[in-house]
Every structure is written in structure tokens, then in C-alpha cells.
């Protein structure tokens, strides 16, 4: 079951960001994490639901250059 809800992705070209974000959603969380580990030029903020249905996030290390958390 794919638990991913939303992906914000940053790359050098907007059209690539849209395509990669869609691809990551289709891959699912674990495959997306592995893909992003290889493609360090891409930065992502991923929202997904855990096994209890609670919303969680996964962030690549470089995403802080593009967004900040609001608590």
C-alpha cells in the first residue's frame, strides 16, 4: 500500500521538479528515499501516513535551503 500523500520537490528546472515529484509519489516512500539518496541534486519534503494513519514527514538533508518548518 502506498502511503505517500504529497511531495514538494526542488531541482534546477521546474518541469523536472514536477515530473520527479509525480514519479516519487508512484514509487512509494521507501523507493523514493532510496532514489533521493542517489540523486542528491534533488531536494524533497514528503508527507505520508504511518500505519496508524497519522501524517508524518520525510525531508532530504538539503531541503532547509528551500523551506522552513512552522511549528
Distance between the termini: 29 Å
Low-pLDDT segments, ≥5 res: none
- Rg of Cα set: 12 Å
Mean pLDDT, nearest integer? 90
The structure class reads: alpha+beta
Strand order of the largest sheet: 1-2-3
Number of strands: 3
Can you summarize the main beta sheet?
Answer: 3 strands, antiparallel
Count of DSSP helices?
2
Measured by DSSP, the beta-strand proportion falls in: 25-35%
Helix content: 25-40%
Summarize the structure.
With 71 residues, this protein is an alpha+beta fold.
Structure description:
- The chain has helices at 14-27, 29-38, and strands spanning 4-10, 43-49, 55-59.
- It is an alpha+beta fold and 71 residues long.
SSE diagram, text form:
Elements: E1 4-10, H1 14-27, H2 29-38, E2 43-49, E3 55-59
Antiparallel strand pairs: 1-2, 2-3
Characteristics of this structure?
single chain, 71 residues, alpha+beta, three-stranded antiparallel β-sheet, 2 helices, 3 strands, globular
